[in-house]
Specification:
elongated, mainly alpha, 2 helices
Length: 85
């Protein structure tokens, strides 16, 4: 076969040395999740507008508090206004 692009052929493959096959590891039943819950917090993923996200970030910076603390305060205010569910 003609090599019109003049590309170098790949180097020859090295032969792998013969190694005795290791016995398969014994299957051990492991739990799917081994993480321990440390506190009562969960991840809160909701889509909000950029304005809302930036507003919470700016409030967190101005008040020197974390966004989760602001969310907790917001739910308290909303529960006072609309009642608890």
């Amino acid at each position: 076969m003609v090599n019109p692009l003049k590309i170098a052929p790949p180097p020859p493959r090295r032969s792998m040395p013969e190694v005795a096959a290791a016995p398969p590891p014994a299957s051990v039943a492991t739990p799917k999740f081994d993480q321990v819950k440390e506190d009562g917090r969960v991840q809160f993923n909701k889509r909000v507008t950029r304005r809302v996200a930036d507003g919470f970030d700016m409030l967190a910076i101005r008040t020197r508090r974390r966004v989760p603390e602001l969310l907790a305060e917001a739910i308290e205010i909303l529960e006072e206004r609309y009642g608890k569910t």
